[in-house]
Write a structure and sequence with these properties.
346 residues, Cytochrome Bc1 Complex, Chain D, domain 2, mainly alpha, 3 domains, two-stranded antiparallel ribbon, 4 strands, 15 helices, 3% strand, two-stranded antiparallel sheet
């Protein structure tokens, strides 16, 4: 092994001192802290961005943070908020097939789609709900309340029945959702809300490729047949079914490929985050195609999209206001549809 002579040591000390000073300066400027918090991939993207549009990455403080759970008040409203969170986390225990309150859903929990009780960044969280509802939604063609949106999830993602809007359970869920988003200014959607938006592929999403991804990355939790892992007491699933009679139906948001792909990219397999994903974009699109190509409960969608020109690019059911067929609207490629719409808008 090569060693330094005594004559080399002053030079090494000088280099070491310079490195220490550089690290100190980076910490003082907040840059090194940003790298630790945001993650190397996020920083790589930041460094590749032109200086004129480079975002601030000082400590990740631009991202929404859920309120401190310890600050929930110790009063009747606080009890309602806590009950609402319980309903989100353990929906099936209360409202599943063997629910203690009412049997009215498929056994999945709201938290299966809204991770960490609706508080995870890019985990389909509730941060923007209180700030943006009521709002007009083209799918129904009406202005919708939070209660209507909650019932959409019960009837679609949970393949169940609507909750009575004056029920204790609905009031509790709404109280919790409002509490989670209480610090968000009205009309705003904070950074980290919703799902990651993945760039469209230049090809259709590939079901066979997706099957390979699923068998490699997803089987351990969701099973070879996509039926999840059931709880021993029969009240629901430890890991939810992704297709079949107990999964979300064809009217659920995750049945749109872009929604499912964005969801898995930032959250799956277990342990993935938006700044530390475990799947490539192509793998996320392909596994979404595989899962959503498999059988699941059907939903009457005849009253959806009264204005068909407002259907999302990846809405999988016709009729459409363009010449592209259902297969392309479901699996892509989506860029030609996007370009046609942009040209039409001009």
């Amino acid at each position: 092994m090569e060693s330094y002579s005594p004559h080399d040591r002053p030079f090494v000390k000088m280099i070491s001192l310079v490195l220490v000073l550089v690290v100190f300066l980076l910490i003082a400027m907040g840059v090194l802290t940003s790298i630790v918090v945001i993650g190397p991939k996020k920083v790589a993207a930041w460094l590749a961005t032109p200086d004129t549009v480079k975002p601030t990455v000082e400590t990740g403080s631009n991202f929404w943070q859920a309120p401190d759970w310890k600050l929930v008040p110790e009063d009747e409203q606080g009890k309602l908020i806590r009950y609402g969170r319980d309903l989100i986390v353990q929906t099936s225990s209360y409202l599943g097939p063997n629910g203690s309150v009412k049997a009215m859903s498929n056994g999945m929990n709201c938290q299966n789609c809204h991770l960490d009780a609706g508080t995870k960044l890019f985990g389909n969280n509730y941060s923007a709900v209180a700030a943006t509802y009521p709002k007009f939604r083209p799918r129904s063609g009406t202005e919708e309340t939070i209660e209507k949106r909650v019932n959409d999830c019960f009837e679609r993602s949970l393949n169940g029945l609507a909750l009575a809007e004056n029920s204790k359970e609905m009031k509790a869920i709404v109280a919790y959702i409002n509490w989670v988003g209480k610090d968000v200014p009205k009309g705003k959607s904070p950074e980290g809300s919703g799902l990651v938006e993945l760039p469209f592929l230049d090809r259709p999403a590939n079901v066979e490729n997706g099957k390979v991804v699923y068998e490699k990355q997803c089987v351990v939790c969701h099973g070879k047949e996509g039926n999840g892992i059931a709880l021993a007491d029969g009240t629901g699933w430890q890991f939810p079914p992704l297709w079949g009679e107990h999964s979300y139906n064809q009217g659920a948001g995750l049945y749109r490929l872009s929604r499912f792909a964005g969801y898995v990219k930032a959250n799956m397999p277990l342990g993935a985050t938006f700044d530390n994903p475990q799947l490539t974009d192509e793998e996320a699109w392909d596994v979404a195609a595989y899962v959503n190509a498999l059988p699941r409960p059907e939903k009457d969608l005849s009253q959806d999209w009264p204005d068909i020109s407002k259907k999302p690019i990846d809405h999988p059911f016709g009729p459409f206001a363009d010449e592209f067929d259902e297969t392309q609207h479901k699996f892509g490629p989506f860029k030609p549809i996007q370009e046609k719409r942009k040209a039409g808008a001009k």
